[in-house]
Amino acid sequence: MAIVVGVSGALFPPGTARRTKRAVLLTVAVLLLATVICGGGAVLAANLLGLTGCEPRPPYVSAVQEDVRRVGSLIPALGNGNPSGAASGSASASASGSPSASGAPGDGSASPSAGPSGVVAVHYHFRDSVPHTCPQIATLGTVYEGFAQLTPERAEALRGLRWTPADAPDVPDDLQQFAPANAAWQRSADLDTATGAKVWYDQASRTAFFSYYATD
Questions:
Q1: Are the CB atoms for 159 and 190 separated by under 8 Å?
Q2: What are 2-27's pLDDT values in tens digits?
Q3: Fewer beta carbons below 10 Å: N end or C end of the chain?
Q4: How far apart are CA 211 and CA 101, in angstroms?
Q5: Which H or E element spans position 49?
């Protein structure tokens, strides 16, 4: 027994167990205190954000809109003008060799065949470009996206643009019902530049899908 006690004393000097226990208790106490402080800080921060009216939330998405005038004011070049920069004019004016009534060839003005608005109908929504955070780190803008059906005259005016086949646009669920069936989507760099938007176009249905970003 004396040998066992001697060995234990050599391995664990007197007071070591008490110091180890005290260190463990101190560590636990520090961790508990840190948890309380951090938790209280989080609650305090949440209360302060609530008092200032700041509340993190996902991006807002509107109901489906049908305001043709609104789309016309946001993206006027979609229904008017000559994105290609080529001469614009009616077929009769071209045949007679006289300039169109809308202006001299190549001035970029709207073709009279397109009328005051080359858009017949629209179905779109608008949404926040990013989630709301506190504080707001990313720039918060508004994205307008949806479908616009063009008049036959406007479709004819856009036929001369340089088009390239494109993958189908990423259409949100609430707008899927307005997508043309069996669409053959195309893109035109000239039209994107003129509108300031991303535009996909299906010539058979005269339907454009647009995505336009506006800063608030």
A1: no
A2: 444 454 455 555 566 666 666 666 77
A3: N
A4: 32
A5: helix 16-51
Place of tokens 């961790």: 31
As a whole number of angstroms, the distance between CA 4 and CA 27 comes to: 32
Residue pointed to by tokens 């069936």: 181
DSSP letter for 139, please: P
Single-letter amino acid code for the residue at 1: M
Give me the residue label for tokens 């509107």: 62
Q: What strand order describes the sheet that includes 164-165?
A: 119-128, 141-150, 207-215, 198-202, 186-187, 164-165
Alpha-carbon gap, residue 128 to 25, rounded angstroms: 51
What SS3 class is residue 212?
A: strand
Model confidence pLDDT, tens digit, residues 54-92: 788 898 999 999 999 999 999 999 999 887 754 343 333
**Structure token pair of residue 17:** 């167990």
Helices marked H in 52-185: 68-74, 76-79, 91-96, 152-158
Q: How many CB atoms lie within 10 A of CB 65?
A: 15
**Could you count the other beta carbons within 10 Å of the beta carbon of residue 160?**
13
Cα–Cα distance, 161 to 190 (Å, whole number): 7
Q: Using CB atoms within 10 A of its CB, is residue 144 exposed (0-12), middle (13-18) or buried (19+)?
A: buried
- Alpha-carbon distance 191 to 212, whole Å? 13
Average pLDDT over the chain reads 76
**Between the CA of residue 163 and those of 153, 158, 166, what are the distances in Å?**
18, 10, 9
* Amino acid, single-letter form, for residue 141: G
